[in-house]
Amino acid sequence: MSGQGHRTPSAPRLAVWKFASCDGCQLSLLDCEDELLAVAQALDIAYFPEATRAPIRGNYDLSLVEGSITTPHDAERIQDVRRRSRALVTIGACATSGGVQALRNFANVCEYASIVYARPDYIHTLATSTPISDHVKVDFELRGCPIDKGQLIEVISAFLAGRKPATPSHSVCLQCKLKGNVCVMVAHGTPCLGPVTHAGCGALCPSYDRGCYGCFGPMETPNAPSLSARLSSLGMDERALQRVYRTFNAQAEAFREESERHDE
Amino acid sequence: MRTETQRSVVRDNDERISNPRFETMDKGMAEARSIVDAAGLEALRGQGYALIGPTVRDEAIVYDEIATLDDLPRGVGDEQDGGHYRLTRRNDEALFGYVVGPQSWKKLLHPPVLRLWRARREGDELRVEAEPARVEKFAFIGARSCELHAIAIQDRVFLGGAYADPHYRARREDVFIVAVNCGVAGGACFCVSMDTGPKATMGFDIALTEIVAGSSFLVEIGTDAGRALLDSLPHRAASASETEEAEAILAHTAENMGRSLEAGDVRELLARNLDHPRWDDVAARCLACTNCTMVCPTCFCTSVEDASDLTGLESERSRRWDSCFTLDFSYIHGGSVRQSVKSRYRQWMTHKLSTWYDQFGSSGCVGCGRCIVWCPVGIDLTEEARAIRESDAQKGAT
């Protein structure tokens, strides 16, 4: 892709930006194999370092932003991205809640750096990993670690049609029930974060007999303390309870508060 | 005034539901009892029905297509309590030795997700294509009495009134129902309290009582179609002792309900306790995860979603189960009406046990206990009702 395909002449310009992240979410766009040509036709893919040969400078109609803010440089760069973007949509847990790298928020980042790097003095990093919305106005947040490619296409389609994306914020449980899944927690005693987790993955793990890991972050009105009491009766100790909320969405408010409640 | 209007609507509805298939069966038809063996359960094969019955999947009993007798859960029992469900091994070969599982017939008559129409732009024209109604007829094997009552309730919801749901009607019409009288009571069952079981008294073509585990069934006839089926099977007249045995089994089931609910005045009890402190108590436990509403065989709410593709040429509208526990459910201009979980739980429970009477002329609860068992934290509406009763705002005054 060069950004010069057979798209409609006035196609909106798309940019895909990367901040502190693993690239998995933006690669979800390339993973949309069946829809990729339609995307390239409907949008002018103007800036996408993972996929294009040459970036096009200027302004963008739709910016997809992956990753969290972890460096002083990125804290400035996101301001520039915002200025160049008509609509800014964050994609994934890093951009939306700070990602797994927000574990630093619960510790001393200098200590981490001294363990990981031979020359920690070369590292210019912030004490925290924070979501994009802490820095600039965000028009829409797409959840997930990684995002669901069907939901990404839905968000792009909704943007093109000028409508609201259908990405419900209820629990994963509702998706399980729509699929006819047997509840892994009630029927098998498997600890599951589904009741407090935002839908969007299609109840992937419970569909394969696993408990939900909370990759999509907290649902609209999460009641984590009540779920924790249940998880505790299923055999999880305080340490396990702290860790179960402290993964890809550790910084998301409801999960952060609940993990802190189980701090030893 | 609102209540009066709704009641008159219910009366109109009752008159409109004139299709005898949806009516209470004539109890007079169940005169002579017969006995069939287990092989008779296969009689509906090859008669053009999609045969749906209980089968074991993922360590639970679900309703799915069954091909032969071997697909039924032979020798399987279950253990049920608040937030707890386990299959157990029975010490006999019973084919129906368990109670209701996580699913109900709702998933077939009122599917979780249903496309309503598709539209396509062709030049200047917009072509809209309505989703065709289902043609293949269902036969339900093993529907329990509480479930027959739940189906009757959904019949009133979807077929009563001026606007019958065409998809529900197409799926519901001519369903052949083989009911099974419950030989055991589940840990969360309370059909006796709701007067909906354990014996099937309406809404079936044929009803069975498993009198010898896995092999011998006492048959009652509910409709002409049921009689025709029985006539096509090897059967013999039931002896007096076999009929007594069936009655004894049902009496034993009725005496062993896992739960109970004082249903007589619960409608009024809840209506006068909308500010009871217990609603705060249950809200602290409630996850608002929607499981209770999803597993409830009478909950019928849906959300309608539109989808468009990247090209803007194709679009479709679908509906899916929704729940009064989500924020979107009560979203109107400016926000959600029921922001607090307290208001959502209260809405659900008072609708089920109280305002359902105003709207549809009956309780919305059939005492199946699914909402108790499949609540991840085991919230028990019979317990919630009891707690409210114990400190009823007007206790002593009424």
Automatic annotation (TrEMBL), chain A:
Residues 22-158 form the NADH:ubiquinone oxidoreductase-like 20kDa subunit domain. InterPro entries: Hydrogenase_assoc-protein, NADH_UbQ_OxRdtase-like_20kDa, NiFe_Hase_small_N_sf. It comes from the Bacteria. One of its GO terms (molecular function) is oxidoreductase activity. Keywords: 3Fe-4S, Cell membrane, Iron, Iron-sulfur, Membrane, Metal-binding, Oxidoreductase. Pfam families: Oxidored_q6. This is Oxidoreductase.
